[in-house]
From TrEMBL:
<keyword id="KW-0411">Iron-sulfur</keyword>
<dbReference type="InterPro" id="IPR056740">
    <property type="entry name" value="ILV_EDD_C"/>
</dbReference>
<dbReference type="InterPro" id="IPR037237">
    <property type="entry name" value="IlvD/EDD_N"/>
</dbReference>
<dbReference type="InterPro" id="IPR020558">
    <property type="entry name" value="DiOHA_6PGluconate_deHydtase_CS"/>
</dbReference>
<feature type="domain" description="Dihydroxy-acid/6-phosphogluconate dehydratase N-terminal">
    <location>
        <begin position="67"/>
        <end position="379"/>
    </location>
</feature>
<dbReference type="InterPro" id="IPR004786">
    <property type="entry name" value="6-phosphgluc_deHydtase"/>
</dbReference>
<keyword id="KW-0479">Metal-binding</keyword>
<dbReference type="Pfam" id="PF24877">
    <property type="entry name" value="ILV_EDD_C"/>
</dbReference>
<dbReference type="GO" id="GO:0019521">
    <property type="term" value="P:D-gluconate metabolic process"/>
</dbReference>
<dbReference type="GO" id="GO:0005829">
    <property type="term" value="C:cytosol"/>
</dbReference>
<keyword id="KW-0408">Iron</keyword>
<dbReference type="InterPro" id="IPR042096">
    <property type="entry name" value="Dihydro-acid_dehy_C"/>
</dbReference>
<keyword id="KW-0004">4Fe-4S</keyword>
<dbReference type="GO" id="GO:0004456">
    <property type="term" value="F:phosphogluconate dehydratase activity"/>
</dbReference>
<dbReference type="GO" id="GO:0009255">
    <property type="term" value="P:Entner-Doudoroff pathway through 6-phosphogluconate"/>
</dbReference>
<keyword id="KW-0456">Lyase</keyword>
<dbReference type="InterPro" id="IPR000581">
    <property type="entry name" value="ILV_EDD_N"/>
</dbReference>
């Protein structure tokens, strides 16, 4: 495989390095420079640490005779994706003991399910939960007695939150161990069809419930390619979990072998200073992950999350950088909602190993970037995977289904799945990979709402019968925590299927599962900050052009006052997060309190 990188990506990486020189240096200088030394830890501290262990193990840990590995887990059984983690600490400990190492659960983090909170009050806590997870990971690691750590977390805000928290301890090596997807249930097309029928009142609640239960039916991640599975692909691309292993089923022999291999890797990494997390997560690592996001048509949520991950490592990236990456990255996968098949079919077609290999060969992923395995990304894919049949039965670079995965020189689209949108309404992003070309330009009068229930009510009253740009304002991080507006997808899809030109403009988020309706989201400045969308009124002409990346209105917004700010609800724990809403950064800055200026 060639590792010569595309000239545009090389130039962008140099720009990021230059603009981030001071912040990256400050981050690296903030990390402890020497190796962990438990013999310097106070006796009372160590006694607390080892209180649960037999005497023989106490001495191994206290005298620092072998690596002591922490585990930070986001296990709960509210999330099907995280339920398999219930016995991971025990399995990890068993494999570690075979290597002479010890393990300890350092702490747990909260992990909410957006699939449960969609359209409900709890969704307003969803984005902020990422920073809570980062902070709680830091609490678990604060005991400072570990030589490295294992991170158990899969879903939307959880994996980014764990990674952000771990970067605060970047002097240690870390590895993610994923849990894998559930087996394929009801087809995504059938699920979407039933949702749209229900939105029109043509399917009963019982029919809809049975459909959803057939789709979400067992332990493992949801099988569509949303935010959770985008997390997994990006971590594979970063070399922080075994490349090619993300989508093995939870019950498969490969999954059990992957746990053992990951423990072996982290145990070995504790003796190699070059593999500490703060060193591994550099500009090459971050850009590789973002190329993977674009090439796979991944979730728009990562246009927020990975900006925060980058900032945690001292790098300053923005949506213009993502636009450059997208412009030279071909779209190589078709996985629902960008296609009809799910991540299990993607894995069978070649999966992350196949995608990685062809992108490295095409000069779009830097194969020289190191991995936790101590080998380069290219060597891990080209040499480790083919010789480890336990983990992969696919030959990297090969695709078994060209309708799902294609080589870099025969893409589905010439550019990536995410587009920067900008104009006199601000800046935002659009996921174009799932939007048909004939739906990528909408110019129509707008209807302005301040929450998604108002849109649903207008739809139910039969008010949305003409071409329309639906504007949902005051959904940004400062307003109400930036909830996903996924419940709008079925009804807007109904309007589009009826032949109406329809688009969505919002300062909120859409689910990683959203797709076929043209949507300009994450608009900055948000309405709460006095952004231009706060001055739109019903009937204003709005142009949403994903081909040109244009978000424009012909209305004279300068002559108007912003719309009144809706009252902020405080029930269901939302009041406790008001201080976060008051200080959060913009979506393009990662919508974070941890890095707000």
């Amino acid at each position: 495989m060639t590792t010569t990188l595309h000239s545009t990506l090389l130039a962008l990486r140099e720009q990021i390095e230059q603009r981030s020189k001071a912040s990256r240096t400050a981050y690296l200088n903030s990390l402890p420079q020497g190796p962990q030394n438990r013999t310097a830890v106070g006796c009372a501290n160590l006694a607390h640490t080892t209180a649960i262990y037999p005497s023989s193990t106490k001495r191994v840990i206290s005298l620092h005779k072998s690596p002591h590995i922490g585990i930070v887990t986001a296990y709960n059984d509210m999330l099907s994706a995280h339920q398999p983690f219930v016995d991971y600490p025990e399995k990890i400990a068993l494999h570690a003991r075979a290597l002479g190492a010890t393990t300890q659960v350092a702490g747990g983090t909260p992990a909410m399910c957006d699939g449960v909170t969609q359209g409900r009050e709890g969704m307003e806590l969803s984005l902020f939960s990422r920073d809570v997870i980062a902070l709680s990971a830091c609490v678990g690691l604060s005991h400072d007695v570990f030589d490295g750590a294992i991170l158990l977390g899969v879903c939307d805000k959880i994996a980014p939150g764990l990674l952000i928290g771990a970067l605060g301890f970047g002097h240690l090596p870390f590895v993610f161990i994923p849990a894998g997807p559930m087996e394929t249930g009801l087809s995504n097309s059938e699920k979407a069809k039933t949702r749209q029928l229900a939105a029109q009142g043509k399917a009963t609640r019982e029919v809809l419930l049975q459909s959803e239960e057939k789709a979400y039916h067992s332990a493992g991640t949801c099988t569509f390619y949303g935010t959770a599975n985008s997390n997994q692909l990006m971590l594979d691309f970063m070399g922080l979990q075994f490349p090619g292993g993300a989508f093995n089923l939870p019950t498969s022999p490969q999954r059990q072998a992957l746990i053992a291999e990951s423990v072996r890797a982290i145990e070995s990494a504790t003796r190699n200073p070059a593999l500490r997390l703060g060193t591994l997560v550099d500009s090459r690592c971050l850009m590789n992950a973002l190329v993977g996001l674009m090439a796979s048509g991944g979730s728009t949520n990562h246009t927020i999350h990975w900006i925060s991950v980058a900032r945690a490592a001292g790098y300053l990236i923005n949506w213009s950088d993502l636009e450059v990456i997208s412009s030279v990255t071909p779209l190589l996968t078709r996985v629902y909602p960008n296609g009809s098949e799910d991540v299990n079919a993607f894995h069978a077609a070649g999966g992350t190993a196949g995608l990685l290999a062809t992108l490295i060969n095409g000069g779009l992923v830097d194969g020289e970037a190191p991995t936790l395995w101590g080998t380069s990304l290219a060597d891990t894919v080209a040499e480790v995977l083919p010789n480890a049949e336990t983990f992969s039965t696919r030959k990297p670079e090969a695709t078994r289904n060209r309708e799902i995965l294609r080589p870099h020189d025969d893409p589905f689209e010439l550019d990536g799945g995410i587009r920067l949108m900008q104009g006199n309404l601000g800046r935002g992003v659009c996921k174009v990979s799932a939007v048909k070309h004939e739906h990528r330009l909408v110019e129509a009068p707008c209807r302005v709402f301040t929450d998604q229930q108002q849109v649903i009510d207008a739809f139910d009253r039969g008010e949305l019968t003409q071409p329309v740009v639906v504007v949902v304002a005051h959904q940004g991080p400062r307003a109400n925590g930036m909830p996903e507006l996924h419940k709008l997808t079925p009804l807007l899809g109904v309007l589009q299927d009826q032949g109406l030109p329809v688009a969505l403009v919002t300062d909120g988020r859409m689910s990683g599962a959203s797709g076929k309706v043209l949507s300009a989201i994450h608009i900055c400045p948000e309405a709460k900050a006095g952004g231009p969308i706060s001055r739109l009124r019903d009937g204003d002409m709005v142009r949403v052009d994903a081909d040109e990346g244009l978000l424009h209105t012909t209305a004279n917004l300068d002559e108007r006052e912003p719309m009144p700010t809706p009252p902020q609800a405080v029930s269901h724990g939302r009041g406790y997060f008001q201080v976060w809403r008051n200080t959060v950064s913009s979506a393009e800055e990662g919508a974070s309190n941890l890095f707000a200026e």
